[in-house]
Amino acid sequence: MKCTSCKTLAVKNGKQANGEQRYYCKNCRKSFQKAYKYKAYKLETNALIKSLLKEGCGIRSISRILEISNKTVLSRMLKISGQIRPMNFTKLGCKFEIDELWSFIGNKANVTWITYAIERTTKNVVAFFVGNKSKENIKPLIDKVLLLNPSSIYTDKLNIYPSLIPKTTHKRFRYCTNLIERKNLTLRTHIKRLTRKTICFSKSKIYLEAHLKIYFWG
User: Is the dihedral of CA 193, 76, 125, 136 positive or negative?
Assistant: First the structure.
């Protein structure tokens, strides 16, 4: 039996309580069995969870489709997002749009905001954060964009932006954020927890951040 991780030969290592043969890999020191009854152990499960999260399925929907528990879906979502690194955008002199999108955390009385920046040509998300629309929260995102020496930064008329973005770079006029506003609609269509007029919303900030990380960069 070949190891599922390093593909070297493994040896028999006793049996499970249900009679399933277990194997042990001396190379990577992992213990495993040839087949698992619980579908969460299948190698393709993480890839399926990632795809379904991007296609508008909620946690309970994924649980029903893959026949695994809600808690397993949530824990796998955190694990997958932890392996994803933010986009390393290094091109200088580009044009960016920044906007905010509201959602809920915990209950529908607790409104939170997702603020993010996209590059106009590629429409790639270069940075985002989840939290209140305050100067302290928005500044790190603006600073990250400014490090790319942008030719223009387009925003809406939120009164925080003029104090954070140089006047020569900052652009605010009608329809200047059309691309990112359209991106907002796409997010609400593709991410169940952001859909308007639904019972679905994030129970915790970490799950919302994990879902966005998977959608933007996964």
Answer: positive
Tokens at 126, concatenated: 């270069």
Q: Which CATH class is domain 95-217?
A: alpha beta
Query: Picking from 10-14, 31-35, 43-47, 156-160, which range would have the lowest pLDDT averaged per residue?
Result: 31-35
Helices (H), 19-134: 45-54, 59-66, 70-82
Burial class (CB in 10 A: 0-12, 13-18, 19+), 120: middle
Instruction: Decide: helix, strand or coil at residue 105.
Output: strand
List % helix, strand, coil for the chain (3-state, nearest 5): 35, 25, 40
Whole-number Å distance between alpha carbons of 149 and 167: 14
Note if the pTM is more than 0.85: no
CB contact at 8 A, 2 and 34: no
SS3 2: strand
- The number of beta carbons lying within 10 Å of the beta carbon of residue 39 is 13
User: Residue 213 is encoded by which pair of tokens?
Assistant: 């990380």
Rounded CA-CA distance 27/29 in Å is 6
Spell out the residues 6+ positions from residue 93 whose beta carbon is closer than 8 angstroms to its own: 148, 149, 150, 151
Terminal Cα distance for the chain, rounded: 32
